[in-house]
């Protein structure tokens, strides 16, 4: 990712201006404000604004007048209780607004999380930049033979080179045609809202994405997971580090109970009880389907 000198100057100016406030602020998030964190080859994530901190979560849970209890351990215990028991509204008291630059195909996956406010850069009014996502060789993989949604073995040698050449050439050709259709030199030029339809799904777009912490945790639980598609996971992992600085107590509970935890079905709990009692349980005697059993063994062996 490269920022223009003008963009870097704009960020520096925004960060140089400080204002007195009575609002609760997170020192960790203040250090993150406006900074552009690179993702993929041309993408970025940066925080534009936020509201609330760990104390806002506990304050809402207690419906108190102040900023919660004095003892951090009490607040941490309450936040862990709320996370452990799937309470949602206290976490909704915190909000954050991100500026994200991302490939269109990642945006289409991202937008399925319908619990946020989104305003995307409009190619009806503006002209998109000549920027495309081209995977690094270590992320160029064949289709998985066991998972219709996943990747398998890496492409290597001539096949990898051929695929990368196709991706680059098709993207550049499409953008050349996009510019050619827009041009008003010796012609009327096609409307921007029509010319954009010819661009490939790896062209970069940008948006502002505002979400509360509860729904952000849901997004991160799915998209920072090891099974998520690499490209959207790369964004989620950067956002995890930002959230960790913003609400360290809440993120610690989220990391423990969501990212590092596992949800068990009634059948899975029964199998564990039978195993602890010394019984040898197989898939055939577990009452689980082959898919359920495979996932159960992936966590519990």
TrEMBL record:
PANTHER family: FLAVIN-DEPENDENT THYMIDYLATE SYNTHASE (PTHR34934). The active site is at residue 223. Pathway: Pyrimidine metabolism; dTTP biosynthesis. It is an enzyme of class 2 (transferase). The lineage of its organism: Bacteria, Pseudomonadati, Pseudomonadota, Alphaproteobacteria, Rhodobacterales. Its cofactor is FAD. Coiled coil: none annotated. Its EC number is 2.1.1.148. This is Flavin-dependent thymidylate synthase. It catalyses: dUMP + (6R)-5,10-methylene-5,6,7,8-tetrahydrofolate + NADPH + H(+) = dTMP + (6S)-5,6,7,8-tetrahydrofolate + NADP(+). FAD binds at residues 89, 112-114, 120, 212-214, 218. It holds the Pfam family Thy1. Belongs to the thymidylate synthase ThyX family. DUMP binds at residues 109-112, 120-124, 196, 223. It comes from the Bacteria.
């Amino acid at each position: 990712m490269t920022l223009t000198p003008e963009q870097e100057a704009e960020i520096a100016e925004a960060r140089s201006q400080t204002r007195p406030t009575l609002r609760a602020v997170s020192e960790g998030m203040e250090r993150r404000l406006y900074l552009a964190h690179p993702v993929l080859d041309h993408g970025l994530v940066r925080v534009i604004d936020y509201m609330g901190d760990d104390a806002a979560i506990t304050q809402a849970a207690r419906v108190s007048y102040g900023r919660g209890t004095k003892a951090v351990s009490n607040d941490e215990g309450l936040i862990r209780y709320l996370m452990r028991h799937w309470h949602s509204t206290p976490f909704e008291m915190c909000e954050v607004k991100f500026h994200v630059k991302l490939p269109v195909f990642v945006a289409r996956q991202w937008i399925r999380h319908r619990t946020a406010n989104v305003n995307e850069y409009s190619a009806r009014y503006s002209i998109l930049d000549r920027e495309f996502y081209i995977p690094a060789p270590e992320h160029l993989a064949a289709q998985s033979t066991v998972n219709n949604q996943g990747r398998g073995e890496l492409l290597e040698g001539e096949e990898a080179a051929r695929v990368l050449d196709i991706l680059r050439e098709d993207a550049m050709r499409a953008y050349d045609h996009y510019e050619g259709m827009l041009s008003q030199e010796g012609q009327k030029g096609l409307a921007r809202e029509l010319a954009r339809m010819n661009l490939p799904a790896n062209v970069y777009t940008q948006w502002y994405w505002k979400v509360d912490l509860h729904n952000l945790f849901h997004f991160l639980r799915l998209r920072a997971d090891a099974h998520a598609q690499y490209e959207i996971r790369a964004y989620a992992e950067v956002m995890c580090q930002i959230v960790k600085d913003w609400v360290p107590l809440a993120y610690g509970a989220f990391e423990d109970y969501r990212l590092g935890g596992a949800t068990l079905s009634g059948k899975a709990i029964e199998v564990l009880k039978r195993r602890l009692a010394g019984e040898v349980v197989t898939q055939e005697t577990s009452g689980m389907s082959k898919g359920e059993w495979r996932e159960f063994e992936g966590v519990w062996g």
